C-alpha cells in the first residue's frame, strides 16, 4: 500500500483531485484498521477516531513535511493530537506514514505496548508531546509555534482539538496568546462533531457562537466540512494561511463517520463493536471505496 | 512588605538566578525565559533588555505558560519557565506532570519566592506544598538551593541536564554558605558541610544556614552534629541518608510542609531501610498571618529550634 504523500516530490505533479483520492483511500484504510484494533483490544474511542480520520489522513498523507526516518528533525512540521484519546486515528496514520511497523498496531493497549491508550512520545517516534487530559496539546503547540517564530523557521504547527475540549480554560489561554503573538505558522483544527462524551456540546456547555469566539481572539477562521478532503487540502494549503494570524479550521464532522450505525451517536464515544457490527462496518467502508 | 530585607551579608537568591540565566543566554541561543507577567518578581528585567526576542511573557496564565514551555523545548529551545512558586506549581500541576515530566520535555521550572517568602500575603501565596507535590512526580528533578552560589550552580546544572528540572528560588535573605575550596554542585549529590557523630541535621534552601548555626550551638553543649545540605530532594542522595542514619538520630528542617517534603523523603527511606529516630521540622499546615521571618520563628525553624530537636533526640538515644 502506497502511504507516501503524493505531493512530497513535486507539488505540481498531481492534481488536487488526485491528491484527494489518495487521501480518501488512506482514510478508508485508517478507519478499517482502527476499528479492528479497537475490537481486538476491547476498548478505544471509535466515535472521535472516525470523526477525525479525514483530517488526520489529509495531514499525514499529503500536507505534513515529515520524514519517518528523521522523526525529530528540527525542521519537521509538527502535528499535535490535543484530543489525545483519539489514538486510533493517530496510530494508524503514524504506522501508515512509516513511523513504526504496521504489524505493531496489533499490540494496541496490550501489556508493555508502545501503543498506550494515549500517545506517548517517550515510547513512540512521531508523537510530539504526551496528551490525554484535555487542554494540554494546544498550549504545547503554541510553544512550538513561538519557537518557530523566534527562529524564523519554516516549519508549520498543526493542532487537532476536540470541540468539547474547548470547554477547558487552558485552551483559551493558549488561543489568546497565539492571537497576541500573531502566530502565522500555527493551524488549529477543531473536530466539530458537536458531541462530547455523554451529550451534545450545546446541551452541556454551549460553544456557539464558536467562530466569533476565535475571531475575537485574533484568529483567521475557516469553517469547512471536515469530511470533504478537497476542502481540507485547500484550507491546509500553506499559501492560504495568513502570515500575521493563526488560523483555525472549524471542521464540521460527525462522530463515527463512515459507519452508519455509529454516525452522530454519543454512545460510540468509547463503545466497542461486536463481531457482527465490525463486519458491517468493514463492509460499509469497503463499499465506500468502490463508490 | 515584600521587599527583601536589605541586610549586610545577606542575599536575595533571585539576583543570582537572574545573573546565571543571563550568562547562560549569552552563551547559548537556545536559552529562553518564559514568565507569567512576572518580569519584575522573577527579576527578568535585564534579561528582557539584553534578549528581547527570547523573553516569552504569556501573561497571567500558568497552565499555558508551562505548556508553552514544553512546546518551546520541542522546538529546540531550553526554556526557563519562571513564576511565583505557589502559582507555577499548584495552578499548572497537570502541565508539569504531563507536558514536562511524563513527556520528558527539556523544561526548567523556576519556582520563585517559594516557601513563606510572601509572609503577610498569606497561605494563598505561600508555597509550602511544592516540594511534597513535585517529588511525587516521576522523572522530575527537584532542587532547593541554599544561597546565591548554589542557586547559580543549580541553574547552570539544570541547563546542562537533559530533562525536566524544578528549581526552588527564594527571595528570603540568606547568607553565603561557607564551603570547602573546590566545592562543586552536582544534581543528586548531597553536601556534608560539617561532620558529626551524634546527630545528623538534614536541611536545604533558606534553612541550611540555620542548621549550621544550630550545629555550632550544639557543639557548645558537647553534641557533635553533622550538617547535610540535601539540595536535590528528588532524586534523593540515599548513600548520604544511610550514613546519616548511622548516627542514630536525624533532624530534617525545611521551609515547607513538615510532611511530604524533604523530611518525608528522608523518612520514607529510613523507615524501610535504616530505621532511625527522627524529628521533621517545617510547617504543620497553612500559616497564620505574619511576616516571613516571624513565621519561621513561630514554627521553630530557627537555630534554637533545630538544636532543641537535636538535643531531644540525642537525649533519648
Strand and helix layout:
The complex is a heterodimer of chains A (291) and B (317).
Chain A: H1 16-41, H2 46-63, E1 78-81, H3 87-96, H4 137-151, E2 157-162, H5 169-181, E3 186-192, H6 201-204, H7 210-216, E4 220-225, H8 229-236, E5 247-252, H9 275-290
Parallel strand pairs in A: 1-2, 2-3, 3-5, 4-5
Helix pairs in contact in A: 1-2, 1-3, 1-9, 2-3, 2-8, 4-5
Chain B: H1 13-27, E1 31-35, H2 45-50, E2 55-57, H3 62-74, E3 78-84, H4 85-91, H5 93-102, E4 108-112, H6 130-135, E5 141-143, H7 148-160, E6 165-169, E7 191-194, E8 199-203, H8 208-220, E9 225-229, E10 232-234, H9 238-245, E11 249-257, H10 262-273, E12 277-283, H11 292-298, H12 303-315
Parallel strand pairs in B: 1-2, 1-3, 3-4, 4-6, 5-6, 8-9, 8-11, 11-12
Antiparallel strand pairs in B: 5-10, 7-9
Helix pairs in contact in B: 1-7, 3-5, 8-12, 9-10
Explain how this protein is built.
The complex is a heterodimer of chains A (291) and B (317). With 291 residues, chain A is α/β, with parallel strands linked by helices. Helices cover 40% and strands 10% of the residues of chain A. In chain A, helix 5 (169-181) links the parallel strand 2 (157-162) and strand 3. In chain A, helix 1 runs antiparallel to helix 9 and helix 2 packs across helix 8. The two termini of chain A are 19 Å apart. The radius of gyration of chain B is 19 Å and the shape is globular. In chain B, the strands form 2 sheets. In chain B, strands 2-1-3-4-6-5-10 form a 7-stranded mixed sheet, sandwiched between helices. A 5-stranded mixed sheet of chain B has the order 7-9-8-11-12, sandwiched between helices. Chain B has 12 helices and 12 strands. Chain B has helices spanning 13-27, 45-50, 62-74, 85-91, 93-102, 130-135, 148-160, 208-220, 238-245, 262-273, 292-298, 303-315, and strands at 31-35, 55-57, 78-84, 108-112, 141-143, 165-169, 191-194, 199-203, 225-229, 232-234, 249-257, 277-283. At the A-B interface, helix 4 and helix 5 of A face helix 3 and helix 5 of B.
